[in-house]
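Help needed: design a sequence for this.
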């Protein structure tokens, strides 16, 4: 590609960034900031549940609290990790006393992972504190705006699953 073609290509990219894709650039910027803050917050919440809990494992606790006992394969699909990563995370959660395994009554070869009573109590205490932070931060928002944000984020998450 010659110098003139490079200039045209750069100019076209600039036009896209200045034009129709401005909304998507803004979306990218805001989501990047939100994800950075969420990672930091996730680490803090994980430490509140247990000082040795990995931040990435917090999402497993969310899934187990919301959905009840799950197979490791279901948890891996929900989080989007492989079997080896899931096994390592579950082993760590078991060692911390936050989850336990029991045979799956539908398939004796499989195991169901569930929160222990202590794991559920610790997790729900931290989750309630997080929810209280959302309530404080969004106190000036109308409830319909909060519901709309939740709806749109849910729609974004669903589109990521397809």
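Sure. Designed sequence:
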């Amino acid at each position: 590609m010659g110098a003139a073609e490079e200039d045209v290509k750069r100019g076209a990219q600039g036009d896209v960034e200045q034009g129709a894709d401005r909304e998507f650039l803004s979306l990218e910027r805001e989501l990047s900031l939100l994800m950075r803050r969420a990672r930091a917050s996730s680490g803090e919440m994980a430490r509140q549940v247990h000082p040795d809990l990995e931040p990435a494992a917090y999402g497993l606790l969310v899934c187990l609290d919301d959905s009840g006992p799950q197979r490791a394969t279901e948890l891996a699909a929900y989080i989007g990790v492989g079997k080896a990563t899931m096994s390592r995370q579950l082993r760590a959660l078991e060692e911390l006393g936050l989850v336990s395994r029991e045979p799956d009554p539908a398939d004796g070869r499989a195991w169901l992972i569930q929160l222990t009573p202590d794991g559920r109590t610790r997790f729900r205490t931290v989750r309630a504190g997080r929810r209280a932070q959302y309530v404080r931060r969004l106190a000036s928002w109308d409830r319909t705006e909060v519901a709309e944000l939740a709806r749109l984020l849910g729609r974004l998450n669903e589109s990521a699953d397809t």
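The longest strand covers residues 107-115.
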